[in-house]
Amino acid sequence: MRLADVQAPAMPRFTTGIGEFDRVLGGGLVPGSLVLLGGSPGIGKSTLTASALGNLASERKVLYVTGEESPAQVKLRAERLGPAALNVPILAETDLDSVIATIEAGQPDVCVIDSVQTLYAPDLSGAPGSVGQVREVAGRLMRVAKQRDVATVLVGHVTKEGSLAGPRVLEHLVDCVLQFEGERERTYRTLRALKNRFGSTNEVGVFEMRGDGLAEVTDASARFVAEATRAPGSVVLAAMEGTRPMLVEVQALVAPTELVPPRRVANGVDRNRLALILAVLSRHGGLALGSSDVFVSLAGGVRVDEPGADLAIALALASAAKGMPLGADRPLAAFGEIGLTGELRPVAHHERRVSEAEKFGLAPVLAPGDGAPTLRQALRRALAAPAAAEAA
Ligand SMILES: Nc1ncnc2c1ncn2[C@@H]1O[C@H](COP(=O)(O)OP(=O)(O)OP(=O)(O)O)[C@@H](O)[C@H]1O
Ligand SMILES: [Mg+2]
């Protein structure tokens, strides 16, 4: 059959009513698709899926299958989430045959399986959660999902190391793999798509866990800028989270050490990247921190894994080491990659980062190609600015 002759009616997506969730999915749940939602214990997988189903329940048929918690436990959570979540029909079952029979009888539009590791196929040996079982469970749920157009969300546990056999083996099978991450004790949690057959994998959703469930954080930049301290060692990084610019405060502390080798502690940034920046600072920036403990941290517990963070980290370190605040009456915003020879290298989405900083009154932004082709020149400019302002 020619592709042109294939019948492919445009299917409307199911919007979950959670903007950040929809955005990461690429505009909502696709009917008949299989989504794997992974994340470490207690991160909020059940909370996210329960409130999504609650929102969907007013217009669609939904089903929440819990193999993990009793109906009473799920109800307690739903009570926290508000009245909509209490309308969701629930099935407490771990037997795959019963679950599939219920889906076929009830024909829901959207179904959540919490979690895929707790279901088991009785005709298969092996404990629930073993590789064979998980694969069989997901395979059979997928067939039902495709045949009946049920958008199915499989919740899966992943340990920090990603070591649990379960969900990893499913990544090829499913249409979309979402990773819910964040430190449990921190406020902000991020939802990323690692794979998406119906959308970009660049999108990131930011959430905050509250008593009444997960709240979307759409104004992450505003919060992080408002929280910026402007003390020595503080710089605002104009980062990209997927296709969305985000301003985050980088904080550095430099203190004399009694340890050999000195401490290098990085929160939210890569340790190796920090080591590289320290080496370039010492070799090309005239700032040797070999006899100091160095701590770098991103405020709010966010994590940024992109080379664009280099310059902001270097400036925060220089400011902390010299005890000089950067930026006169407002925090200094910066971004850019640092090369091994001490040059500043351009990074993607230059304009979008600059305009995000401008939106929050942080212009001018210190960035590559901005009259500062090297790290040394950028340091000189940043450290000179407040002194000049004081003189004036
Ligand atoms: N009353 C409350 N107020 C604020 N936050 C709460 C409250 N109750 C629970 N939480 C938060 O919700 C989290 C648990 O959420 P949830 O059960 O959705 O996580 P999960 O990823 O499904 O966990 P599991 O791996 O156990 O299935 C807790 O770690 C806690 O941060
Ligand atoms: Mg759960």
Describe the structure.
- By secondary structure, the chain is α/β, with parallel strands linked by helices.
- Helix content is 32%, strand content 23%.
- The protein has 11 helices and 16 strands.
- It has helices at 19-25, 45-56, 71-81, 96-106, 131-148, 165-168, 220-227, 271-284, 310-322, 350-359, 375-391, and strands at residues 34-39, 62-66, 90-92, 110-114, 151-157, 176-181, 188-196, 204-210, 213-216, 234-241, 244-256, 264-267, 292-298, 333-334, 337-338, 344-345.
- It has a 9-stranded mixed sheet with strand order 3-2-4-5-1-6-7-8-9, with helices on both faces. A 5-stranded mixed sheet has the order 12-13-11-10-14, sandwiched between helices. Strands 15-16 form a two-stranded antiparallel sheet.
- Strand 7 (188-196) and strand 8 form a beta hairpin.
- Helix 4 (96-106) packs parallel to helix 5 (131-148).
- The longest helix is centred in the middle third of the chain and has 18 residues, at 131-148.
- It is elongated, with a radius of gyration of 25 Å.
- Mean pLDDT is 88; it is low at 388-392.
